[in-house]
Amino acid sequence: RVGNVSMLLSETTRPRKLRDVIGQESVISKLTRYMKDPWNTPHMIFSGPPGCGKTSAICAYGREVYGDNYEKSVRFMNLSGERSVQTILKKVHGVCKYYHEKKGTKGLFICDESDCMTSEAQDIMSHCVSLYESRWIFVFIMNRLSEISDTLKGICEIHQFQPIKNPEDLLSRVLPKEISRKDASRMAEYYSGDLRKILN
Fold first, then answer.
1. Dist CA 65 CA 60 (whole Å)
2. Could you give the CA distance from residue 75 to residue 128 in angstroms, rounded to a whole number?
3. How far is CA 130 from the centre of its chain?
4. pLDDT at 10
5. Which residues, including other chains, have CB under 8 Å from residue 178's CB and lie 6 or more apart?
6. How far is CA 13 from the centre of its chain?
């Protein structure tokens, strides 16, 4: 619990630094390099199975780049239920037309469940990226890269996340001690290595 609010274990154990993200060495290596010159960080697509660290990686990047300005410089949009052209126009334009708070860097706009967008919404999103790229870095998180248009792929750097191997190694560090490594291994198998589902 945080104060009077109950927090999911998947949130309270989310890595806060890039070095703490496990199993995605190639992606973390690139993000670490971009962190040294955040102004030139490209727009990105994070694709891979659920619970493998896509959101954790970009949040850790954001926390290291923006520090105390994280809440003001990072914007989230979940597109699973809001994927229409009207939503994109209203919400993306509504946020991106303003400059974010930290001088010397661009803001970070994270679009989760991006593979839920309609083809028309993806066209509008591609236009928004081009229109606001001087102010914002867009990161699109998804499970199915095949659902994304060539136009959007063409303006983003694509990072493929891999399923986490031996997730019980991480689980044994964050789960209550009453849960044995054998039980953690069973949960990892049952949920196909999806750390978010296991922890929740």
1. 9
2. 15
3. 20
4. 53
5. none
6. 15
